[in-house]
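User: Thanks for the earlier help. One more: L-ascorbate peroxidase. Can you show the sequence and predicted structure together?

Assistant: Of course, both are below.
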Amino acid sequence: MSKTLLFSSLVTSFSSFIHSESHPSLSPVSVKCTLSSSSLRTPQLFITRRTNEGLVPRLVSTSFSTRALSANFSASDPSQLKSANKDILELLKSTSCHPIFVRLGWHDSGTYDKNVEEWPLRGGANGSLRFEIELKHAANAGLVNALKLIQPIKDKYPNVTFADLFQLASATALEDAGAPKIPMRYGRIDVTGPEQCPDEGKLPDAGPPSPAEHLRHVFYRMGLNDKEIVALSGAHTLGRSRPERSGWGKPETKYTRDGPGAPGGQSWTVQWLKFDNSYFKDIKEKKDEDLLVLPTDAALFEDPSFKVYAEKYAEDQDAFFEDYSLAHAHLSDIGAKFDPPEGFCLSG
């Protein structure tokens, strides 16, 4: 961060403080920020107070620092985000919450509408899913449990936005389950209140009358194409559907009755905590009644355009991995507002 930008922020912050406090000894004042030497790391802040003797400058001791002020110039603190990533990995080990974290990231970003320019009205990953009004949308049933899991990490790292944390948790869960490295960037800005939440009905339904048409309606609205629709559908290789939440699936199967995690539900794959291309293989074969196939899953092998990609991914896991990682990063980015505008990547 440049010293000029830092000083400007310091002056603005301190001016706001002065004008918001009832402090007669500091009024009327002017605020000036100076740098006494090129090696000074913390700026010196002077206030000038009008007295009977004229204008008297006085050095004010402040707690501001370049580190503290950096939050004004990016939505999330990169060092805190890295630490949060380590905590997420530990949480995944102890709870096997990979699927619900993937869903958390998807559902925060999947509200984007390319036809709306204004943020946050356009939707996308903006942390709005933390608010009760959006958590109560039918498509988000059960995601309150994901928020309960992630909230202690957010409390521990207050300079990480919810929008970044949801997307970090989603990508980390996928990679920990065996997915390829996803080219994620961070720096998403959060919405500030529930009035900025999207209207209900932005996310896909499991059993619409015309499944392929419905998938295109939802994902084309976000600017995604048929290849991305099919690749992203492959994330169903993780997780289970619970009838008490979605209305789909069996209460339990031989693959889910013993967990891990809370038992029950019906999974799409046998090893439902392993990310691979078995989702496409199992849908194509349809040999196991204990594995779930939703109407929108079956459409991938029924629609001519979708089928090209579904067949390819069933045969070529490397191709699926490559296309999935790019599609996931795309979904995570669209609609989000970044600070800095280009975002930033986590290294190491």
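User: Great, one quick takeaway?

Assistant: The first strand starts at residue 29 and ends at 34.
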